[in-house]
Amino acid sequence: MMRRATLILIVLLWPGLATAEAVEARRHMLAAAHPLAAEAGRDILRAGGNAVDAAIATQLVLTLVEPQAAGIGGSTFMVVGRDRDKVEVFEGREAAPSTVRPGLFVGPDGRSLPYLSYAYGPQAVGIPGMLRAFEMAHRAYGHLPWADLFRHAIDLSENGFVVSPRLASSVATYRERLARDPAMAAYFLPNGQSLQAGQILRNPALAETLRTVASGGAAAFYRRPGMFDGRDMAGYRAHRVAALCGPYRVYVICGPPPPSSGAIAVLQIMALLQRFDLAAWGPADVRSLHVIAEAGRLAFADRDAYVGDGIAPGRVAALLDRRYLARRSNLISLDSSLGVASPGEPFGRRGALPALNETHGTSQVSVVDNSGLAVSMTSSVGDAFGSGLMQDGYVLNNELADFDARTEGPNVPGPGKRPRSSMTPVLVFDRDGRMVLALGSQGGPRIIGFVAKMLVATLDWNLDMQAAIDLPHALNRNGMTELETGPGREAAKTALEGMGHQVRLGEIDSGQQGIRIVGDRLRGGGDRRREGVAVGD
């Protein structure tokens, strides 16, 4: 075991901290995963739209330009608020059709089926929820007419857009999956050739779908013929609920409640870190990496054992109880790792269920308008290119593969159930109730660690938003401690291994987008690991 004094002396070189600069604005700001989508959102803001209008328009363009990540064939969690007293979530998570039963992904022998045997294809597609959630949020908050929000996406779909390097790379990486479906192959592999960066790509089928929804509302989408029973489509409902909020030092962090596990896990991580002087240690101290990883272990142990669609509010409160989390925090030693953590006993239950399938096709949008209204929204189609199926110009999700392949537990399939998600869009407020942050990320179950990193980087280390995004990742999902490659990371790996961590060092993709409010200024950043940008006036 490495001695604590030695650990304190280890200094890591964090790339990006000296040169990263946030984009600054005074009136309004938007951060998204693609420049065309961000510009569409800014145009809406300039035209008098608010943060909800801009977020919707941005995501509609992302459906076209980032189809591997998120779109109208998938889901969304939209967190909306202006002050701490009223933060709402519009949840459009996919729902299982009425024919789905527990054991959907369990073989005749009672064993879990291999993920690849069911994750891609019609059996993994859930009823999309994005457009229902968008319509609900627009009716509650929107300023501009519904149809105006579709204008940019329709225009780009009809007239074409330039294929970005990231989309071209994704098509090349998942070429085999795309080739299985005739519609996907015709669009992404024209004449048998993968799309190339710089090509002009048009999607008239998507334009027609969007025109139908722009004129007929979300109901027009849910009446369109497709792979689901019409009653299941017509019966889908989005949810408008209060955000799940919790304290961290002098701040309050708010995010989506279940079926997202994100806010519960992030609030647990931050509470577990509360007793450590992260501000004094800073990002270059290996103690920071260690305690953040250990907090991640403990939070994921509880998440995997207890969180799923339908968890009772009392159980959520028990998982976030301060006394319970203080006891859990005391399990973290500065000298050694816990190894694989066991779930706690917040309500007298033992035994963890191991995490199984999660997704990686996701996108984040953060917006603050000139009235102070903010949106943090994470959307997804599941894995990259979702189910590998395309309908009416958009990619169909494979989010039912987020259910656990077993017959018992908090996250098993069932008719109408919504699979557990890791999407974690958050808004953060100071002690006076003023908003200070709107942020979130792409990344499947790693989203939870990415968001916790951004919160620590801004709230404890006072990094600017772009520097917080650029900060190399370090996280743990109750297994390997994952470190992002960069200068000084070999030294960090060695130090953590000396404390008992199993460490994986390598590239870690993310899609963080965030805005920090400092006085009368908005300072935003986008994830340069993807094509993220922040724009504002």
- Which ranges are low-confidence, i.e. pLDDT below 50, for 5 or more consecutive residues? 1-19, 349-359
Subunit arrangement of the protein: single chain
Largest sheet: 7 strands, antiparallel
Helix/strand structural class: alpha+beta
Q: Roughly how many Å apart are the termini?
A: 53 Å
Mean pLDDT: 92
Give the strand content.
15-25%
Q: What's the Cα radius of gyration?
A: 22 Å
Spatial ordering of strands, largest sheet: 1-20-19-15-14-9-8
Number of strands: 21
Overall 3D form:
globular
How much helix is in the residues?
Answer: 25-40%
Q: Work out the helix count.
A: 19
Task: Describe this structure as you would to a colleague.
The structure is a single chain. The protein is α+β, with helices and mostly antiparallel strands. It contains 19 helices and 21 strands. The chain has a seven-stranded antiparallel β-sheet with strand order 1-20-19-15-14-9-8. It has a seven-stranded antiparallel β-sheet with strand order 7-4-3-11-10-2-21, with helices on one face. It has a three-stranded mixed β-sheet with strand order 16-17-18. Helix 12 packs across helix 14. The longest helix is centred in the middle third of the chain and has 21 residues. The radius of gyration is 22 Å and the shape is globular.
